[in-house]
Design a protein that fits this description.
It is a single chain. The chain is of the alpha+beta class and 526 residues long. It has 3 domains: 2-145, Rossmann fold (3-Layer(aba) Sandwich); 159-298, Alpha-Beta Complex (Hect, E3 ligase catalytic domain fold); 378-524. 52% of the residues lie in helices and 13% in strands. It has helices at residues 15-28, 51-61, 73-76, 80-93, 118-146, 173-187, 192-201, 207-214, 230-238, 279-298, 342-345, 358-379, 384-423, 429-479, 485-491, 509-524, and strands spanning 2-3, 40-41, 67-70, 97-100, 105-106, 159-162, 165-171, 246-248, 251-254, 257-260, 267-269, 313-315, 323-327, 335-339, 355-357, 492-497, 503-507. The chain has a 3-stranded mixed β-sheet with strand order 3-4-5. It has a 3-stranded mixed β-sheet with strand order 12-16-17. A 3-stranded antiparallel β-sheet has the order 13-14-15. It is flat. GO terms for molecular function: DNA binding; DNA strand exchange activity. Keywords: Coiled coil.
């Protein structure tokens, strides 16, 4: 069963109606046993990435169900190509009977062979309906924007929806005071970062956490870390909504991706709701922000050397990325340092603080890498003796694969003999199906073992290749302690530095060898 947002206004499409229609169908087909009911409520039929539908496919492939019933073809989907694929290709290949009650379609019926033209035609009508509905909804939203109605889901920080009109914004007295303070600080010359720190130090809830407290946000992925950040402050100070204007349609969907629309595509309507700050204060803050942005553009740009640890180096105390800073020297070469900026960007006392010279860090990393590579290569040494052992292990796995393939051939021979036994009345129908299921289950189990053994062979080959690469990396570090970005990316997952300059490295290669050994142990015990 499926119900999209646009269907919710139609009683004939409700989940309850669909359940009732399918229940009547089941009354006429008592041989069908209901295993599971799959429901996608509020999901469009133009794509099939729906939780209920995907779970149904998983259960089909697991052999749990062999029949699918829907109220009509549009409940399966409104996409011509994909809907046709599932009805005409996927379901038959999986041995699944498909019933669309209101369309009087049943794939098990001898008459369904004549539906080769009707089914695609109905699917085209369903898709055209979905596209038409989507266009109408977009047109209605665009008109509502032009009429000065708010069409967003969540309201901007500082506003709530009117109890009697979800398209009308009203001032949230609590958050509005924070917004006023932010604009006042900005007008007085406080930068974005200063405002963020002042809010964090004052213990003001960040917008997402405040909205969670109000119940507007429930999903954890939308909440963030709870701290005010410069981009959040900038977004609020730039938003015309706080001067009483609605600026909507700033983003659009292209090829299923949301992108920013050009300014001439925005819908701007002035004085649609109560302003939180005066238009004079809002304009003054825009001038301050524009001036700061221009100064940043005019600032002299110094060339920087590549950041070899970009995205890999973190503070061991607060977990934030360490900031790389260039220290310009007049008489000596410039130096680079890494330091934690949580105290400057979040609030004082947010972190004990970390500071380390890049040259010293890279030199220490070379020592740590050399030591770990020597340990790992020694542990998984591929001496002539070990190479002989690996060859024997490969031969053992290959023999096991050959043996299991022979076993499958034998099982298939037994399986073919079952039908002859049924025809010649040596087996009853119940015995035939019981033995057939038994052989199929055994063939499936042995096939999975073959796949595991093949994975073991691939692991051995990959382990040999990995060992050779690590040996080359170890030799490179011994001969030239200069670390490259490619070498670091290949060997290191994460680097953590503490206030005491203790360096913790999470390696990429160690876990790979451990996984290889785990897979090989499974193969040895098979």
């Amino acid at each position: 069963m499926r119900l999209s947002v646009e269907d919710k206004h139609t009683r004939t499409a409700s989940i309850e109606t669909q359940q009732l229609i399918i229940a009547r169908c089941l009354e006429q087909n008592p041989e069908i046993i209901v295993v599971q009911t799959y429901i996608d409520n509020g999901a469009t039929g133009t794509n099939f990435h729906r939780p209920g539908f995907q779970q149904m496919l998983s259960d089909i492939e697991a052999g749990l169900i062999n029949c699918v019933i829907v109220k009509d073809l549009s409940r399966l989907g409104r996409n011509v190509i994909d809907t046709g694929y599932y009805i005409e290709r996927y379901f038959p290949a999986q041995g699944v009977r498909f019933i669309a009650v209101n369309d009087r379609y049943d794939s098990s019926s001898p008459d369904h062979a004549h539906d080769g033209i009707i089914i695609p035609l109905r699917n085209m009508i369903n898709e055209a309906y979905a596209l038409d509905i989507a266009k109408k909804i977009k047109a209605q939203q665009r008109q509502a924007m032009k009429d000065g109605k708010y069409v967003g889901g969540r309201t901007p920080y500082g506003y709530l929806k009117a109890p009697d009109d979800c398209h009308q914004l009203i001032v949230d007295p609590v958050a509005a005071e924070v917004v006023k303070t932010m604009f006042q600080w900005a007008a007085e010359g406080d930068g974005l970062n200063t405002i963020a720190v002042r809010l964090n130090e004052a213990g003001v809830l960040a917008p997402s956490h405040y909205k969670k407290r109000l119940g507007e946000i429930t999903h954890e992925n939308l909440i963030g870390n709870g701290n005010w950040q410069t981009r959040t402050v900038a977004k609020i100070l730039r938003a015309g909504v706080y001067a009483g204007d609605l600026v909507q349609g700033v983003s659009k969907v292209i090829d299923h991706k949301q992108v920013r629309a050009s300014a001439d595509e925005w819908t701007v309507v002035r004085d649609t709701h109560e302003a939180i700050v005066s238009r004079e204060l809002f304009d003054a803050v825009q001038k301050v922000l524009d001036c700061a942005a221009q100064q940043a553009k005019d600032r002299e740009i110094h060339s920087w050397s590549p950041n070899l640890l970009r995205g890999k180096i973190f503070c061991a105390h607060c977990g934030h990325s360490l900031h790389r800073q260039k220290c310009v020297r007049k008489k000596t070469p410039d130096v680079y340092v890494y330091h934690c900026i949580s105290n400057n960007r979040i609030k004082k006392g947010a972190c004990p603080g970390v500071f380390i010279d890049e040259m010293n860090l890279l030199d220490a990393l070379a020592d740590i890498l050399q030591e770990q590579l020597d340990t790992t290569l020694g542990q998984y040494s591929l001496s002539p003796e070990n190479l002989s052992k690996e060859a024997k292990e490969q031969k053992s796995i290959q023999d096991k694969i050959a043996s299991r393939k022979q076993e499958i051939q034998q099982l298939r021979t037994y399986q073919r003999g079952l039908y002859e036994g049924l025809i010649q009345n040596h087996l009853s129908q119940d015995e035939y199906f019981a033995l057939k299921d038994k052989y199929e289950a055994k063939i499936e189990a042995v096939s999975k073992e073959i796949e595991q053994l093949k994975a073991g062979l691939a692991i051995i080959a990959r382990q040999l290749e990995q060992y050779k690469m690590l040996s080359q990396d170890a030799q490179h570090i011994k001969e030239d302690r200069h670390l490259t970005a490619a070498l670091i990316d290949r060997l290191i997952e994460r680097v953590e530095v503490s206030r005491e300059k203790q360096i913790t490295v999470h390696f990429r290669f160690q876990s790979e060898f451990e996984h290889c050994e785990e897979v090989l142990n499974q193969c040895r015990n098979m």
